[in-house]
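Continued from yesterday's entry.
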Amino acid sequence: MQGLVSDKTFHLKWNNHLQNLSQLFTTIYSSSALADVTLSCRDGTLKAHKLVLSACSPYFEQIFKDNPCQHPIVILKGIPFSEINLLVEFMYKGSVDVQELDLQSLMHTASELEIRGLAYEARDNAAQLLNVNLEYPAYGQNATSTPTAATSATVSTSQTYPQARTDVERLKQVS
């Protein structure tokens, strides 16, 4: 029987694959194990994984493609650490608890960073709740968030964050 060629194929499936990946993401988020990028913001730094950030954000994906460093430092000017921390937690876990006071600001930052699952969907939902019509550029075409390389290992977003807060201020005035 040795040397016989078989046309049979077998489909192998790991039944709880997604559950295991979800648990793994939670574990590596909590421990920063194998982190390969540092996010630096106004009042702190956070270690993360390029793969996770890229999968959850076309913005980060483009930064890492344009700057193929082993361990880049992405500088997010003007964005508070508390917001970056919540957004990264959302990317790893798929959910996050946010105080009502911080929700609008967080959603705008999510839109600036093009975070899937939060970006424009969240803004639209908030606008509907407050009966406000928000205008914003098409998905992925935000000119204020263009990444520029500062050094071979550091990336700066050159983000004009106060300008990104315009809609937040408008929402606050209406509510």
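--- second protein ---
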Amino acid sequence: MEEELKSMKDNEVWDLVKLPKGDKTIGCKWIFKTKHDFKGNVEKYKARLVAKGYTQKEGIDYKEAFSPVSKKDSLRIVMTLVAHVDLELHQMDVKIAFLNSDLHEEVYMDQPGGF
């Protein structure tokens, strides 16, 4: 949990502020996951702090939502080109991908308990 909060602090995800009069907060919760190696042994435990965005109402709390993901057809085309031209393909994972987008409106989230 400390690692997740440190990552958020290092990436300036939030500022601790007083809630302006008339505004409301959304809650937050911890999501816990256990990572295993190929033999099924526990490799590490992960914790993610997420906003309870599902409590917001479209048109009232936000205008639209968008998450860029690729379609299966796009991936198939790329894989076909890689195989056809005999290229090398590299994969990567961005651990903090969702911390790197800018919000265009102010969102106030409750501070996680104990922190």
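Residues 2-67 form one domain. The first strand starts at residue 28 and ends at 36. Will compare against the first tomorrow.
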